[in-house]
Amino acid sequence: TERTYIMIKPDGVQRGLVGKIIQRFEERGYKLIAMKLVQPTEQHLENHYADLKGKPFFPGLIKYMASGPVVAMVWQGLDAVKTGRAMLGATNPLQSPVGSIRGDFCLAVGRNICHGSDSVESAEKEIKLWFPEGVVQYTSALESWIFE
Ligand code: GTP
Ligand code: MG
């Protein structure tokens, strides 16, 4: 079992898509083990997107991401990182398949409503960055109906 960091970006929150995005992860069978609504600082976001520092869109990305509250979450389950990314769709919503979150709810790469960790290593880093207090451990009654 695996953990991934999923974040609903400021446009996803403002557009009222929080419930729909959470519902997709719940319905797929993933377990929510941490969640909070936060207004991130630019410093924190520069840390989160450190790998992209130097890209021409970096300043705009930080401004966009700091423009309002985000929903920070950790989801756990089989293949959570790769399948989580597939559920979000491609970086550019126009290249995201219909049925994916970006493919169903947005159009512009700079307003793509959600974030997902791109590897197990970045998931670990991002979970520590956004949840230094740690995640919540609990047993889900559904587990034996979702995993064999
Ligand atoms: P995240 O889940 O947000 O990390 O997206 P990603 O992993 O699919 O893409 P990446 O990490 O390469 O880029 C991070 C974010 O920067 C993207 O989600 C976009 O919001 C933004 N971004 C990436 N490429 C471009 C670009 O070419 N133009 C603009 N305007 N924004 C971009
Ligand atoms: Mg990324």
Q: How does the SSE layout of this entry go?
A:
Blueprint: E1 2-8, H1 10-14, H2 18-28, E2 31-38, H3 42-48, H4 58-65, E3 70-77, H5 80-88, H6 101-105, E4 114-116, H7 120-130, H8 143-146
Antiparallel strand pairs: 1-3, 1-4, 2-3
Residues 52, 57, 60-61, 91, 109-110, 112, 115-116, 118 line the site of guanosine-5'-triphosphate.
Describe this structure in words.
This protein has 148 residues and is of the alpha+beta class. It is 41% helix and 18% strand. It contains eight helices and four strands, in the order E-H-H-E-H-H-E-H-H-E-H-H. It has helices at 10-14, 18-28, 42-48, 58-65, 80-88, 101-105, 120-130, 143-146, and strands at 2-8, 31-38, 70-77, 114-116. The protein has a four-stranded antiparallel β-sheet. It binds guanosine-5'-triphosphate and magnesium ion (MG). Residues 52, 57, 60-61, 91, 109-110, 112, 115-116, 118 line the site of guanosine-5'-triphosphate.
